[in-house]
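anyone seen this seq b4? input:
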Amino acid sequence: MPKCRHTDDSSALDGKRRRRLFRDLMVFQIKLLIDAFKDLLLSPLAIGAAVMDLLYPRARRGMLFYRLMRAGHTVEERIDLFGTRRRQDTQTAAWTVDGAPDHLESRLVSPRGAGERRAEPEHPGEQK
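predicted toks r here
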């Protein structure tokens, strides 16, 4: 009989792995979508910023093009397209796409018990 028990344990583990794989796949697809949108947005903005910098020169530190480049770099760090960040500390870490599903899950799952879902989303002014 221990053989059946082992099979139940391994099937539960396989189910957990499949859910994790599906979740990671969905997060990766969302990251790809956000990254593509960022690229589409930054391309014309970079050209516009460079033209503005050429027409209206300023001190190098304040050049729009380089400010846009720094902002784009920050966005890329937050997307972390091929990164494997997991379960970050939301109090100290900057927001990342990887942390969004964890945050959403923590907002949807009731603190009363594992797996229980809230009837309504929690709002700051919500009365309990």
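The first helix runs from residue 2 to 55. Residues 27 and 101 are 8 Å apart (CA to CA). kinda curious what u guys think
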